C-alpha cells in the first residue's frame, strides 16, 4: 500500500529533472527516494520518463516539459506477501473442492447382466457387465442423479433413477423374467468324441448317472449362474472334468479331452 505514493514521488522527481535539465544540468535524487540520479541528456522529457519509470505514459508539451499518468497498477509490481504465502513455501495453492466422485457398486443380478447410463453425469454411454468395475462419476458436492438401464437375457429391461452422493453408492435393481422364458437349462456339448458320456458330479444335478451327450437331461433352475461339475468319458480318451456355470435356456458346453496312451 506504500508503493503508490512512492511512485508519485518518483514521477515528481523525474518531472523536476526534465524541467530543470535544460538549464541546471543533471537532477539530484530526492532524499529517501529511489529516483534515478542524473538528467535525461538530449532525450525529450516524455521519452526519458517512460524509459526510467515503467508503467507510465507521457505526452510532451515541449522538449523540456510533459504530462504523465500511470497506466499500470503500481501494486502489481509489489505483490502482497500474504497473498503468495503458498508460492513462497513452494506448495501450489489448493482450490476449494467444488466437486466429488461417486463410486457405484451394483446388487447381484442374473448372469451376464449389463448396465448402461441413460441420462445424468454419465461417465460412459457403453453397456458394461455389472460384475466389472464401473467408472467413477464426477458429481457436484451436493450430489446428482443418474438414470441407469439394466438388461439380461430372458428378462425385461429395467430403468431406474438413482440419487448419487460422494463416495460409495450401492445400486439395487430387480429384473422381471419375460413371459415364456425358459425355466430350465438345456445343453449342447461341442467337440466331444464319439461315444462320449457325461455325468453331473455336483451342483443342481437331476441325477449322478452317466448319460449319452445327446440325452443329458435338462436341469430345472431357480436362478441363473448355478455351477455344475461335469465328468466326461469316451473310448480311447482320458476322463475329463469340467466346471461350468449354467443359465436357463440352451448352454453350449465345450468338451476338451486328451487321447489316452496306447494300451490304457
Automatic annotation (TrEMBL):
PROSITE patterns: PROKAR_LIPOPROTEIN (PS51257). It comes from the Bacteria. This is Lipoprotein. It comes from Nannocystis pusilla.
